[in-house]
UniProtKB/TrEMBL annotation:
<dbReference type="GO" id="GO:0005737">
    <property type="term" value="C:cytoplasm"/>
</dbReference>
<dbReference type="InterPro" id="IPR028581">
    <property type="entry name" value="DeoC_typeI"/>
</dbReference>
<protein>
    <recommendedName>
        <fullName>Deoxyribose-phosphate aldolase</fullName>
        <ecNumber>4.1.2.4</ecNumber>
    </recommendedName>
</protein>
<dbReference type="InterPro" id="IPR002915">
    <property type="entry name" value="DeoC/FbaB/LacD_aldolase"/>
</dbReference>
<dbReference type="GO" id="GO:0009264">
    <property type="term" value="P:deoxyribonucleotide catabolic process"/>
</dbReference>
<dbReference type="GO" id="GO:0016052">
    <property type="term" value="P:carbohydrate catabolic process"/>
</dbReference>
<dbReference type="InterPro" id="IPR011343">
    <property type="entry name" value="DeoC"/>
</dbReference>
<comment type="pathway">
    <text>Carbohydrate degradation; 2-deoxy-D-ribose 1-phosphate degradation; D-glyceraldehyde 3-phosphate and acetaldehyde from 2-deoxy-alpha-D-ribose 1-phosphate: step 2/2.</text>
</comment>
<keyword id="KW-0963">Cytoplasm</keyword>
<dbReference type="Pfam" id="PF01791">
    <property type="entry name" value="DeoC"/>
</dbReference>
<keyword id="KW-0704">Schiff base</keyword>
<dbReference type="InterPro" id="IPR013785">
    <property type="entry name" value="Aldolase_TIM"/>
</dbReference>
<feature type="active site" description="Schiff-base intermediate with acetaldehyde">
    <location>
        <position position="152"/>
    </location>
</feature>
<feature type="active site" description="Proton donor/acceptor">
    <location>
        <position position="182"/>
    </location>
</feature>
<comment type="function">
    <text>Catalyzes a reversible aldol reaction between acetaldehyde and D-glyceraldehyde 3-phosphate to generate 2-deoxy-D-ribose 5-phosphate.</text>
</comment>
<keyword id="KW-0456">Lyase</keyword>
<feature type="active site" description="Proton donor/acceptor">
    <location>
        <position position="89"/>
    </location>
</feature>
Amino acid sequence: MTTLDRDQLAALIDHTLLKPEATRTDVTALLREAEELGTYSVCVSPSMLPAETTVKVATVCGFPSGQHAPSLKAAEAADSVSKGADEVDMVLNVGLARAGEFAAVEDEIRAVREAAPSPVVLKVIIESAALEDEQIVGVCEAAERAGADFVKTSTGFHPAGGASEHAVRLMRATVGDRLGVKASGGIRTREAAEAMVAAGASRLGLSSSRAILDGGTGSGY
């Protein structure tokens, strides 16, 4: 298993707060904690932008169901970028993926990519726990064709579950070193976080970052 020191692990974390009941005060506390911990970024809801912080700012798009029209996802992404988001984590339409409609998946990712062009980092949340292996491969390939920068396991809100080492390993095998792989959803211990990195994750979505960095057990996202 990969062994990382505290700073190395922190540098892979998107410190996340996406609870619908979160207040602006909660988000401000998250920003200050991210700066203290040295995480790579924060990930907050679009309504909480702009987020004034010294770390990178990520937000979500089409969250959490992904069942939004591509034009609306694109508009949401463009609005977030205009408010200072450095990264956009979009939820794909999982129903399209389960139906094997990978051309349609590619089209919607491309619509968001065009609305949030590079250097904005685009991550595609695939809800890997709800997909079969061949569907995971298909959506990862579609994301790469559409110009995404990362594929991401989960929203953390789907009843099928969050990240797994198997899914991360399969995603990494599919995209090689051409795209990043973000593991998120249900990672609550330092051991689990390091296992995801060992499986191929280059970014981690965590809400209990301090507890995990301290070697304890977190809760939530």
